[in-house]
Structure formats: structure tokens, C-alpha cells
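Page header: ASSEMBLY MODEL / six components / 798 residues total.
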Amino acid sequence: MSTVKLVADEDASNEVMSVYKDIRQTRGGDFINNFWRALAVNPALLSSTWYHLKSIMSVEGAIDAKTREMIYIAVSTANACSYCVHSHTAAAKAKGMSDDEHAELMTIISLAASTNHLANGLQVPIDPEFLAE
Amino acid sequence: MSTVKLVADEDASNEVMSVYKDIRQTRGGDFINNFWRALAVNPALLSSTWYHLKSIMSVEGAIDAKTREMIYIAVSTANACSYCVHSHTAAAKAKGMSDDEHAELMTIISLAASTNHLANGLQVPIDPEFLAE
Amino acid sequence: MSTVKLVADEDASNEVMSVYKDIRQTRGGDFINNFWRALAVNPALLSSTWYHLKSIMSVEGAIDAKTREMIYIAVSTANACSYCVHSHTAAAKAKGMSDDEHAELMTIISLAASTNHLANGLQVPIDPEFLAE
Amino acid sequence: MSTVKLVADEDASNEVMSVYKDIRQTRGGDFINNFWRALAVNPALLSSTWYHLKSIMSVEGAIDAKTREMIYIAVSTANACSYCVHSHTAAAKAKGMSDDEHAELMTIISLAASTNHLANGLQVPIDPEFLAE
Amino acid sequence: MSTVKLVADEDASNEVMSVYKDIRQTRGGDFINNFWRALAVNPALLSSTWYHLKSIMSVEGAIDAKTREMIYIAVSTANACSYCVHSHTAAAKAKGMSDDEHAELMTIISLAASTNHLANGLQVPIDPEFLAE
Amino acid sequence: MSTVKLVADEDASNEVMSVYKDIRQTRGGDFINNFWRALAVNPALLSSTWYHLKSIMSVEGAIDAKTREMIYIAVSTANACSYCVHSHTAAAKAKGMSDDEHAELMTIISLAASTNHLANGLQVPIDPEFLAE
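Prediction written out in full:
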């Protein structure tokens, strides 16, 4: 797998190492997962993606950190991104998602998929009650 | 729009009216949205879909009702179901989703979509650290 | 809707009219649906698409004509193609799909979507028993 | 692969073993595929998914068992579910899908995908002739 | 359509008007399309989305502006985003996409979709020759 | 992986070998990738797919060969086709895609995905300015 060569620490340019360092500091650990090592083939792509993601996921907001990861899993599942499902399930567990929450998340994702396909399969017209204007 | 004729109350069989009645009681209101009126062309499909959904969405679990609707929006967006985005956004608002939470939900969905496509576009190999076994 | 101007009979070039004529003869009717009128902005695109589709859908094969249209609905639903769901539901009905078959098709599509999302959401490893080699 | 630990027979609770037993009886064989072993991390999720699927796929209806599996393959392909394509191709073959039917199924799925993308790419407006109301 | 109220100039806050002004200056015209007016319900979402997109689409890079819009159409088509197909087709035309290029783009998108579904439907194993490492 | 047995040269019928020969001549090399070896289980499917693809991808048109492959990558990424992303990234590189172009392609695909999900998540109404008629 992978259409690009992953960038190990010993092959990283200064620009890449600077982002790797910020990832390690932000997360409080030495592990750099393959997603970042793949993006690192292009330092600008690595840098813009990391700082964009960090500005959203590492900042306090209206939705707590665990729930954000669960929403991330939902989108990644529907988009069939194997890598993302794996990495964000690990992240959600690290942020406190219990086994029961994980199972219930799967139940809701699967229910949503089933009614999404029913509504699209029957092409149900949108009720005027649902429109914002 | 719609590939089937929506079933109005006056055209509904006893079997359909019985489900409509349960929808109204469960939700505490008279409104029956088009999704159910489309499924009603086949009473068995209406009935099994409604009671399956009710058993998941109307029961207390590990995830609160508002968050469930937000997860539903996430899946429906990724699956490009216009009807479902409309109906579950209305439901999430009815269950207390604030404008800030809505905007943050959109931010996370959109971020997830962007990294989903990066991971799939580069075919990043899954880190062994993410595997459950 | 539409990012191109639909080509009416009176605006059609000879090349386009020749394809329109073959559509009418093959289907035994005067109606040309918008899909072909949109493709007609580029006669080569219209021609190659029509003859490719005709060679598959109008020829007898291992799967009967009605079932082919039902498979078409399944794919179109999962790909969220509103136009295609509408046109192939009409085609399936014209080829004999009953209301019960339509409802059962929706049930299977919706079940498949739900287990697709469960398998992707849990990233279930493929059993060696399922591999052809 | 897998974000959860698969549940082997020797690690299964009574509740899980009872579902495994019903799967074996219904299918007439000892094999339990990984999908169920993954769901088994949550006995309620396993149980509700199995009995829901069984009530649809094991009961006689308007569409024969082989065709149902072929529709399942179509949806799973469009939803990019590798696991599901593998498991339902095996199931379809077990229910009598011939090599010719398999190849023709692929042809129709691939044709549908191509016209789905054309209709979505040109945003073709839906013909009034296709509407149910 | 729309799950939020679009923000007209007369209802816009100073923060929103400042982004609207930058959109107008960057594009050299008065027109603000609905996408931005919908995001404007949350000024931070509007601002971060606009400046992120501007930093990518308005800067010279390795791929010319017209081709970028054509790639945008390809992704939007596969993701079934009606709004995006409409807006980026208009943008591509404004940047010089000819009718022939538009038709050829549709041909390639449609071919890709068809072979995507064949490869996923048969679960073709990746050739080692294609791997970067 | 694979739901069908790949057809090696020594197992190929005359009909299959004739297509393999044309693939080798067209591409100027001995390598036949797994996609064709999987389709070869059904000679008619192999033949129609190859000659259809060849008629589009090997002929000069309005879009150059490298850009066509990049568009192919974009669609394959959004459709989550691992095989196709791998094979067309290899093809794009063989036709001159630079590392910078590859990174920029990923940036645009990822941006498109993010705004696709925003437009679908908010169900933004299409501006009349974007309609062709």
C-alpha cells in the first residue's frame, strides 16, 4: 500500500522535522502515524494540513473532543476511508469513548445509512417544514 | 420528485394508520413527514422501518439524543442524502443543537472529508498501532 | 438544474437526430428523456454513450431485463444519482417490476447499506474462506 | 485490520453463543464469518443485526435468494465495502450465481456507475414523465 | 432547500461584510454566490473556509487554474454534490474550459467511475509494481 | 483479495491472449496488470472494457494524457477505489506527473471534498446564475 514513500525521521528535511516536532508536542508522545509521514513527501502539504487540523481538533469548542472523534468516525465510515476509521477509532478510544459508546455509534451510523438509502431510493420530496427559508 | 405516491391520511389503510398513530404519539405532534408517507406505499416496509428506528432513536443509551442526530447528519452528508440532511438537521435543532454546535459540526465533517480524501488519495498504509489484534 | 443546454429536436444536428432516431426505434416510442438531450451537446459523447448502453441493456443475456433495471436502481441509489433513480425506476416498472418487488428492492438496498457501514465502521478483516485464490 | 477484537467461540458469552448457534442452524454449517465475530463485541448489536438480516434474507419474498445477493453485491460495490463484496459474492455463488451472471452483473454495475456520473456531472433535470406525482 | 438562512448584504455583520468584500475584490465582481451566504451564518466558518480556499485556488501553482476547476468538477461529481458541480462548472467555463474539454472531462469521469466499480466489484488485488515502497 | 481467479498467460484462451497482446502492443511493454487478469475470467467483459478504455485514453483529444490520468485519480479517490488510485497514480507518473503536481492534485481533491461536504451539509440552494437554462 501507499502511492508515496513514507518519510522516516532520518530522511526528513528541517521543514518536515519542525512539523513532526509540533505533532509530538501537541499530542504529548513520540508516535507519528503514517498519515503525516505520507504527506511529508511535500512539506507544504504536510504543514498546511497539520496546522489546519490542529486549529480545529485541538481547540476547545462547542463539541467535546471525544464527540468530535466519533463524528469523524461517522464521516470516515461513510466515505469508506479504512485508514481514517482506524486512526480515529484509536483517537476516540484515547479520548474516552467506551465500548458501549462505540457500539451505539455503529448502530446509529448503520441506521442512518439504511434510511439514507431508502430516502434516496424513493427520492422522497423534502417537506417544506424542514426548510430554513 | 418521488418515485412513489405519498400516502395521505385519507388514503391510508388501517395498517398504515396504526403506524402513523404511533409516530404521532411517540413524537407528540400531528406532523408526519414525507419519508414515512413514501414508505407507506408498502405497509410492511413502513412498519419495519419505523419500529426499527424507534427502537434505536427513542431509547436512552450511551449517547444523548442531540448527539445522535448530529452523527446522523454527518453520515447523511457523506452519503449525499438531501432529504436526510434536511430532516435530521430539523430534528437536531428540535433536540437542542445550537447554531454554534451546527457550525462546528460542519467544520468537523468538512475536515474529515478532506483528510479522508488525502488518506485515500495517497493510500496511506494502516499503522500496526491502530489494530485491535 | 443542468450545466448544459438540453438539445431539442429542432436544434439537433443530423448526427444528433440520427441517434435520437435510433433511441426512438429501439424503445418503440417518441419520448427522448433529458439524459440524452443533455449528452447531445456533444454528438460524439451522445453517440458513444447510447450505443454502449444499448449493446448492454437491449441484448438478451444471463440476467433478465427487469432484474437489470433493479440492479441499476441499486447502484444509482448508492451513488446518490437522483436522475438515475427516477429514470430507472420508471424503466423497471415498464419492464414489469411490481410494487412488492419495488418495496423488497428498497428493503435489500437499505439492509445492504446498513451492513456495508457496519463492516466499514469496524473494518472487519476478510475471511480467507471468501477469497478466490 | 479490524478496530475491535473478533470473538472466538471459546471467548463468547452465553448471549453471543446463542446467536452463533442460530447462525449455524439457519445456514446449516459450522462456519461463522468475521462480520458476526466483530459485532459480537457488543452482544446487543450482534443480536439485533443478525435477527434483522435473517428476517429479510432468509424469508421467501418477491425476489429470489440469488437475485437478492446480486443486488447486495451491487450496493456493496458502490459503497466500496470490500468485506461485503467478498462475503456476498461467496453467498451469491453458493445460491447459484453462474460465472456468466457474475460477469453480467459487473457489466451492469459498471454501466450504471458510468451513467450515474454523467447524469450527476451534467446535473440533468428530471423529466416530469418520471415523477410518481 | 437550505438548512440555514442565507445572509444577505443588508443582514451581514461587519465580520461577514469584510469577507464578502475580499471575495468581491479577489474575483473582480459583485456577485456573492449562495455557498458563502450560507456559511455566513457562522462568521468564523465563513472566514476560515474562504481564506483556506483562496490560498489554494487563487495562487499560482504546478496546475493551471482551468485544470484545477476541472479536477474540482470530477471530485464533486463523484461525491454527488449538485451545488458544487454547478458552481465549479461555471468557474471552469469562466477560466476557459471549452465545450470539447467539458465533454471530454465527462467522458473520463464516466470511464473512471465504470472501472472504479469493476475493480471494487471484483476486489482486484493491487499489483506490487504499483507500490511506492 | 479478489473474488475471481486471475488469468495467467498460461491459462488464457486464444480470445484472452489476443486482448493481452493488444494491451502489450498499445503500452509497449510486457506487463499486464491484475485488473485485466481479473476481467479475463469473462473474455467478453475483458474485451469490451479494454477496447472501450483504449478508445478514450489512447486517443488524442482536448485534454492531454497526463491530465486525464490526474482526473482519473480524482474520481478514483472520491469513489474509494484503492486499486484504481494505485494504478492511475503509476500511470500519471509514467506520463510525466511531477511530485509537485501530485501534491497539488491531493490539495485540490481534499479541498473539493471539504467544500462538497459543506454544500451538502448545509444543502445550499443553487444560484440561478449557474444554470445553463
